[in-house]
Amino acid sequence: MKAKALVLIAILSLISINSSSATDCESACVDVYTQDGELIFEARKGSGPKASAHPKPTTKPTTKPTTKPEVVVKPKVVAKPKVVAKPKAAAPKKATVPKKSAPKPLTATSLSDRISKSLPTIGISYQPSFQPLINVPVYFWSDTPSTFRTKVDLIGEVIDVTMRPSFTWAFGDGTFINTTDAGGPFPNGKVTHAFSTPGTYPVVLITTWGGSFTHNGAVRAITGEVKKISALTITVVAANSRFVN
Asked: Whole-structure pTM over 0.85, yes or no?
């Protein structure tokens, strides 16, 4: 018996948790995710459809069965010969009445909104900026901010977003670097690469944005990532050396 009582208590607690989460979602549902390289914000508010749905079934069965039998028996039998000539004019009037009353429950369902935002465009720089030499480190960097923050107000719900970048450098000679540092010029830059042979190389930078959003004090991870691609070409030359006695 004690075991059965514990099982019933556990089931009731799960039902109460599910019902409370449903009511929270009806009051305000907020989500932030990525799609097609953009940041998508969505918000939805319930306007209390459950409160209006309960009183309607309680009032309709009590009032309608009492009034319908009295009206159907006496007045409709007397009016039958008179209504035979007037159905054409009465039919369009009755057909337009439900069409005007139908949109009323639609306005009481919920409010929702959705917007999208783009993340910053990335530029690449390197030093020395003119024909760097082979076997000499070249310093690379991007003008990416360390964090991207934005605040959005959707149907009265405030959403704070914080995004941070990570970087993948491809130097065109089969060498890759993965880092969270945006790099910098000489002498403090941390993204460097030395080319071993002269030539023209395509340098590609893939910036991946990920982060979280805050709503009503709760922090949640943003679903998905946003990738931005930047590219340039760099020409590396050999140093002409001459030996002198």
From this structure: no
